[in-house]
Design goal:
CATH architecture of the largest domain: Alpha-Beta Complex
Strand content: 5-15%
Number of helices: 9
Number of strands: 14
């Protein structure tokens, strides 16, 4: 997913329909809570390491943590202080430094970036002014597009949480002892009795949304989609199942791989998910500075789209399409409605999904029975991002808002869609319609998958 947020191409009135019917004061409180939650997490991620770690580049795939910190503040300044509040720029001279399109991640350490103390001060100054603007902003239906339903504030909260996820990936890539800790997620209560797959009946359903006030442009508009009946894994594919693919020569047999995936395997001598290594007769993994045995009953993590696709072919199955995934996650046959989340329309609780960095790992397969969808599939929200077979494309009637660079420039066959979020995602940036996308070679992200077959 892109990490660029620049207001250079704000539409005159591109806000999609469906933002009405929401209490402005409730939205104001929701926006405040979302912004404060995001900043608290940003603080944990940046205060847990020293200044040298903040300014270091732990992988050419990622920015230095201090770049993310100042970028968060700069985007908040551009959107909330300038675009919404109409205020004079605080630091216009740094806009270019923190433009993700202008500077690839590998080049960012060479830029004259703000030092950690200066970046913290800048982000804090921006936030104080942004909260003043939130307190006075009209969020009613007739307001300006960016203010309507608090959209700009929700967008910035989502942006910061997306960067928090990016910074958590950087924590996983850094060497040295653990800087973060968290309790283990809950164990499943009925995993043994769960069926391996569920049947999702064929027929139409409503995909996307025109009603979610903070939904991003690529989630819109709601539209009818016909999906044939199919079977879907009840839970994401586990490490134990993936090890059987490995033991059967999965990484040495070209039959299972897309041509570019097979090229990737040979070029990098891949034989396991990222962060795994063999020690004698067992597989170990490194997870946030801790080396541990790979747990067989946990969803596999850090696999590329090519690896997920190869496993599915080896298993005689396939990856679900994006429409299939969303129907399994949202469609309620009893009412004919598409729900906001698999369990209904209410926001996630800790008993329904593994979100928000509460745990630093996926829960075991079969966990969170309260979060299962009417289809019977579970763990569709949280735990691991799930690769689908679909390219990242616009929905019928798509309108770029508030700028093309959020979604439109990434549409096409180069990016694959991921759904459902992971343990590293906050609920403000994760819902049944939320669409993530990335290159099919990406492995450092918190990605897993589940498989499907035709009925």
């Amino acid at each position: 997913m892109t990490d660029d947020r620049t207001p250079s191409a704000v539409a005159a009135d591109g806000f999609p329909t469906g933002s009405g019917g929401h209490d402005p004061e409730a939205l104001r409180q929701r926006a405040l809570d979302a912004l404060l939650t995001a900043r608290a997490r940003t603080t944990v991620l940046t205060d847990s390491v020293d200044e040298g770690e903040l300014t270091a580049q732990h992988s050419p795939l990622m920015s230095p943590l201090v770049w993310d910190l100042a970028h968060i503040g700069n985007q908040e300044e551009q959107w909330l202080l300038r675009a919404v509040g109409g205020r004079e720029a605080l630091r216009p001279e740094i806009d270019g430094l923190y433009d993700a399109f202008e500077h690839p991640r590998a080049a960012r350490p060479s830029l004259p970036l703000l030092a950690p103390a200066e970046a913290r001060t800048y982000a804090s100054d921006v936030r104080g002014r942004a909260l003043d603007i939130l307190e006075a902003a009209p969020l009613h239906e007739g307001g300006r597009p960016l203010e309507r339903a608090g959209f700009a504030f929700g967008m910035i909260a989502q942006h910061e949480q997306q960067h928090d996820e990016t910074m958590l990936i950087t924590h996983q890539l850094r060497s040295g002892p653990a800087a973060l800790t968290a309790p283990a997620p809950p164990d499943p209560t009925d995993a043994v009795s769960l069926p391996a797959e569920v049947l999702v009946p064929g027929g139409p359903f409503t995909m996307g949304t025109s009603a979610e006030p903070w939904a991003l442009d690529n989630e819109r508009p709601a539209h009818r989609r016909e999906v044939a009946a199919f079977h879907l894994d009840t839970a994401p594919v586990t490490c134990g199942a993936y090890r059987r693919f490995m033991a059967d020569g999965g990484y040495t047999d070209a039959r299972w791989w897309a041509p570019k995936g097979w090229d990737m395997v040979r070029e990098h001598a891949l034989d396991a998910p990222l962060f795994w290594h063999r020690d004698g007769g067992q597989w170990l993994r490194r997870r946030f500075g801790v080396t541990e045995q790979v747990p067989d009953d946990e969803p596999v993590l850090h696999v590329s789209w090519y690896e997920a696709d190869a496993y599915a072919r080896w298993a005689g199955r396939r990856l679900p399409t994006e429409a299939e995934w969303e129907k399994a996650a949202r469609h309620d046959p009893a009412s004919g409605r598409s729900l906001r989340y698999p369990w209904g329309d209410t926001d996630p609780t800790p008993g329904q999904a593994n979100l928000g960095q509460r745990h630093l790992r996926p829960a075991r397969a079969g966990a969170y029975p309260a979060g299962r969808a009417p289809s019977g599939a579970g763990q569709l929200i949280g735990d691991v991002w799930e690769w689908t077979s679909s390219d990242f494309l616009p929905y019928p009637g798509f309108v770029a808002f508030p700028y093309r660079e959020y979604s439109e420039v990434f549409f096409g066959p180069g990016h694959k869609v991921l759904r459902g979020g992971s343990f590293a995602v906050d609920q403000v940036a994760c819902r049944g319609t939320f669409r993530n996308w990335d290159l099919p070679v990406r492995r450092q992200i918190f990605s897993g998958f589940r498989t499907a077959r035709d009925a």
